[in-house]
Structure formats: structure tokens, C-alpha cells
Amino acid sequence: MTTTKQQVLFELLTHKGDWLSGDQLAADLEISRESIWKAINSLKKKNHQIESRKNLGYQYIGTPFLDEDIVHYYLDEELVDDMFIEQEVTSTQHLAKQYLTTHQIDKPVFFAAEAQSEGYGRRGRPFYTPAASGLYFTVILPNTTNHWDQVGLITTNMAVVIAQTLETFFPNAHIDLKWVNDLFIGKKKVGGIITEANIELESSSASAFIMGTGLNLTTKDFPDHLTDIARGIDETASVDRNLLLATLVKNILDAYYHGDSAALLTEYRHRSNVIGKHVTLKLGNQTIQGTAKQIADDGGLVIEDEDGVTKSFTSGEVTKTYVQ
Questions:
Q1: How many CB atoms lie within 10 A of CB 151?
Q2: Is 45 annotated as a binding residue?
């Protein structure tokens, strides 16, 4: 059931940038002027920036924080079974995994947080996730194929979707993709994706895929050890993170259920910043060096080694790239 506060917020969002008088809000929502006033004050206490002017009424400006109600407003609630938006968590990936220990899902569920104390990427490597300047979220995707071996291709497909979506919000940015899960601008990383499978041991299949995304949107300051390798997409930009989150989730789900995998893989290859370069691939305790020739149809990285032998790898991490 929608509360009065939510009704007022949604009406202000519908007319964002316009002035709405208290009388107009009361008439449109069929509630009292006093209820409008109380709702406005309650929203302001939750850090919603609402300007009030005599003879004009109220105008919604925005909020610097992620807000579950706003994301609900922008996102078709039919797309997801539930959403959780928190202030600070260990990691949204941890929350999603905990959720799956007590829930079976038929529809996607997602988790987002302002900040993470233990954000991580591939191989458990820490990912810097400061509050307010980034976007950190995990989507649980029900497995519609009963196979668990699609994780790599899901990551490549969703990397393209995320890059394309970000470029609509940051039109001056061009985002490249480093196999398999990193988003780059130039030589610096602006985001990463991690996709893990929730395995059912009895059937040896994945009941769901857990796709976590960490994005440095406007982050300016990084720890010393990251300053040479990481950056924000645009530290001077002003971006509606609630709208961006809702749009990313919508586009991810649309691509997951209805996307053209072949077209997405073609775009991934186009955006790849490793194809044609000499690479070092770390695979467990093994190191492979050679030229990245192509991204295979299953999302694997095709490398021609120094002996001229070509092989496709579906796991591992590219640790170095350079032009020969």
C-alpha cells in the first residue's frame, strides 16, 4: 500500500522541475493540505531537496542519496520480485548470497548500497566503494536454462549493456571493456562486474546467477595505491543515481531475458581493449603469455601463445596488456 509520503513524492517526481501548489497536490491526491505539509516535511527530513516558495508551492530538486521509493518510481515493479537499498553493507554480493540461503526465486531481486565495507571483485580482490560518488549493486538472475556454464557470457553481455547505459548518462565518456569483467576509460578502470553461480548440488546446476557491479561515477579521490589505475567516469558530472540505478537494472533484465546475445558479443569485441595486444593471463598458479586474438563465442579469450599455439580460456585474469 502506498503511503501519503510516497504519494506526494511520486507526484513531485512526475512534475519534477515544475511548481506544484499545496492546493493542487491536495486536490490531485485527494488528501488534506495538512497531510501534504506533513509529507513534505517528512521527505525533507529524509534528505529530499524540495524547494518551497510562497504563491508557487513546492518543487522537487533531488536527493544526494539512493532512495528505495524513487527507484520504485522509475522501475517497473513487475520486473523484479523485490529490492533492497541500504546505507552501508559488507557487500551487496554478500547480501544476495545470504538471501538465497532462505529464498527460492522465480523473478529477479536486487540489492544496492551507498557504501560497502568489504566490496570485492574477482578472486576476492577488494574494490574501493566510497559513499555518494559510486553505484554498487547486485542482481540475482534466475537461471532460465538449468545450465551453470553461462557465467562468462552473461558477464560479457552485461558489460556491454552497462557500458552503453553509462554512456547515455555520461555522454562525453567512451567505455572500453577489459576481458572479462572490467570497464575502462583510457588506461584507468571505472568499474567492474562479478558474476557467480548459485549451485544446487543435487542437480549440479545453477539455480541463479549473482551479478554484482561496482561503478566509480564521480569519485575524485582514491587511495594512493589506486590513483594510477582507477578513476571516476566524470568527477565533474551531476548524475541522478536513482534514475541511473533503475535504468541499469531495467536494461540488464531486458538484455538477460530478451537480448540478442550475438549482437551483444559483437559489441563486446568492438569495445575490447585487449584484442590484438600482447597479454599476460594469470590462470591459478599458471601464467600464459601471448597475443589476444579474439573473444570466442562463449565469451572466452582466444590467445596465441609464443609457440604459435592458439587456445581459448574461459577463466583467468588478464594482468598485463601492451602493444607489441
A1: 20
A2: no
